[in-house]
Amino acid sequence: VSTQSTGGTLDNMLGQSTFTVKKPLKRPWERREPKKTIQERVPKPFPIATLFHCGCQLAAYYYVCYRQRGVQSSRDNLIWIGAKDGPSMAGGEWWRYVSSYVVPCHVASFVMNLIFQFYLGVYLEPDWGTLPIMFVIWVSVYGGIRGSCDAGTGNPSTSSTAAVLGLASAYFTNLFVNWQAFDKFLWRRNALIWLGIVVIELGMCGLDFNDPTLAAFGMFFGWLASIVVMPSAVSYTHLTLPTKRIV
Hints:
disordered C terminus, elongated, two-stranded antiparallel sheet
């Protein structure tokens, strides 16, 4: 216990007595602020859905490259592997709703989709949960394929761009709904990231076998799905800039 004496010459001259103030005794764990709050200590879900989907795309691309001895997919090879193909799906090949997600159309599109999907999934899944992220991805894929088939465009085509734009819609929904919880700088930065992802993804729709109609429908249905499954309470610990702790 430490003491601190106050008073001095002026107090003595005025005939006032000096006094001693004792600082309260603190326990060891009370002497410093905790490094993490209780909310921050709660473990968050591991982004297993994101890693699983990225792993499936990597395996599919390796298989395509190994089979055709090259990185550029061909029309016949895409249809044989399982890309979205309207006439084949009309004939009962419903499994193309799933297989078209992992079928790569172009090396540039594959790399950018993988990077963006990993970033968006790792950002959203710890707060949203595994099942909601899977729901957003597959609603975007299904909605994009149905819209493309009804429009009669893009045969064959991959649906991975639709999934990424669906996640981007969920990212925008999270950004828009929680705008008051964000630090102003972080909100602007994340808004620019979202805009960059959307512009790049739509720009890559100019590549072969990457249907822009499918991508646009996927983005729209991903937005609808994100409204349905967005959590009512989000952990805001990563939405503000870290402040310097005074010890």
